[in-house]
Design brief:
Radius of gyration: 19 Å
CATH topology: Rossmann fold
Strand order of the largest sheet: 2-3-1-4-5
Structural class: alpha/beta
Largest sheet: 5 strands, parallel
Number of helices: 9
Distance between the termini: 61 Å
Number of strands: 5
Shape: globular
Oligomer: single chain
CATH architecture: 3-Layer(aba) Sandwich
Order of helices and strands: EHEHHEHHEHHEHH
Strand content: 5-15%
Number of domains: 1
CATH class: Alpha Beta
Helix content: 40-55%
């Protein structure tokens, strides 16, 4: 008798830090970044100390990734490892310190992005999850679900003009037409996200709604999640000041 396949899920235990970690996921053109920015401004207006971080932004690997993309020399495994390195750097330098200081951390993309993209590129799902097993579990994970045609219309209707090579999955040889390649590649990512939603219990947001309506829905969920949230007592201001000085990041002004 064949033994049952073990579950793929990783970092399944809630973290013990006094802060809160809220992340957003979705394909490009879903509007997730806009919603997270609006949420940040709103949380700051409510008096919360908020720290923002985004995918692929660590100085440790940014230039290496940029050069690899320019030369079109990144294999699926190399791409996966570079993003994992970026994530590890940001986790330990930009996510855990503010969480320990009792702040609210907002992350534009999290490990789920790698779970979706890397799997579509043919990387083992279980291998990718083991790679990110050091990650902490978010307190809230939003997935902004959008039809592929809506995402394409938004992106091409903005300032982009055309899709980027890796963004469109051109490295996979799906199609010579960049828009068609984007459609097929990102549609596969959408299908992968559907599996991740079931596996990790992400909160699905209708990204076709009006911006204001989406934000209202998001704030309602966040308000409930923060109902019993309180920054760690005693010396918080001092810890926060030390944090900003340590990492050379200017403290954001409240709206």
């Amino acid at each position: 008798m064949t033994p049952p396949t073990p579950p793929l899920r990783t970092f399944g235990q809630p973290h013990s830090y006094p802060g809160k970690l809220i992340i957003v996921e979705g394909i490009d053109g879903s509007g997730k970044s806009t919603q997270l920015l609006l949420l940040q401004k709103w949380l700051e207006s409510q008096g919360h100390n908020v720290f923002f971080t985004e995918w692929n932004s660590s100085d440790l690997v940014k230039e290496t990734t940029k050069k690899g993309k320019k030369a079109k020399s990144l294999t699926p495994t190399t791409f996966s490892l570079l993003h994992a390195t970026d994530f590890a750097s940001r986790l330990y330098h930009s996510i855990l310190p503010p969480l320990k200081a009792g702040m609210i951390v907002l992350a534009d993309r999290y490990a789920y992005t790698a779970f979706a993209r890397d799997a579509v590129r043919g990387v083992s799902r279980s291998w990718v999850r083991k790679l990110y097993s050091f990650a902490v579990q978010p307190d809230l994970a939003f997935y902004f679900k959008v039809p592929i045609d809506t995402a394409i219309a938004r992106l091409l209707g903005g300032t982009r003009g055309q899709f980027k090579y890796y963004e469109a999955g051109m490295d996979m040889g799906i199609s010579q037409d960049v828009t068609e390649s984007f459609r097929i590649f990102q549609s596969r990512i959408l299908a992968e996200y559907d599996k991740i939603v079931d596996e990790y219990g992400l909160t699905v947001m209708d990204a076709t709604k009006e911006i204001e309506d989406q934000q209202d829905d998001m704030r309602e969920v966040v308000t409930k999640a923060l109902e019993h949230y309180k920054p760690k007592r005693g010396g918080y201001g001092k810890r926060a000041t030390v944090f900003w000085r340590r990492f050379g990041v200017p403290k954001p002004e409240r709206s």
